[in-house]
Amino acid sequence: MMQAPERSPERDAAIEAMLPSVPFDGWTSRALRHALASIGADPADAPMLFPGGAADMIEAFCDLADRRMQEAAAAADMSAMRLPARVRAVIALRLEQNRPHKEAVRRAASVLALPGNLRLSAACTARTVDAIWHAAGDASADFSWYTKRAILSGIYAATLLYWLRDQSEQDEATLAFLDRRLAGVAAFGRVRKRAQGAAERLVPRGLAERLHGPA
Length: 215
Prior knowledge:
Tetracycline Repressor, domain 2
């Protein structure tokens, strides 16, 4: 797993209490102070809890969402599913959990899209994608670790943007969009494997091994 941001029960509680205010006040110190007061904490602690301001709060929110997604996935019975179906199920869990906080996610995405926050945005996406794979039961550590996470990063980012505009019941349109993207990747993988197999039949074995590695 990638290195996580700072975690503490106090930070988690502050983010949880803050979510209802974010649609109105944004990821701001005002919303944070109001949240702290609502749970009986000292609003003056706001700068100490999140010294990085909005970016720090959003990173903590993304990390909290990752952990809750993994907990929900662990509690679900996915043992009978193949890996792609488990990935799809984990992403569906993430969307379901964030559905009550869609406006907070929208405002977070707007902040992360600012030029100064692009590195943080990439880090948050990478951690979420890594959490999705782990929640789906994939623990590979070979070269495919990188390729699978790179592919899913693009799929997840596109799905999230689609979801932010989705007005359908129970995220139905978004899940259909996700299914199409996952099907496209699966089809590409099958074509690539067939092409590789055909190439290996047409060239000497030694050359094929140099191109693709030993069979």
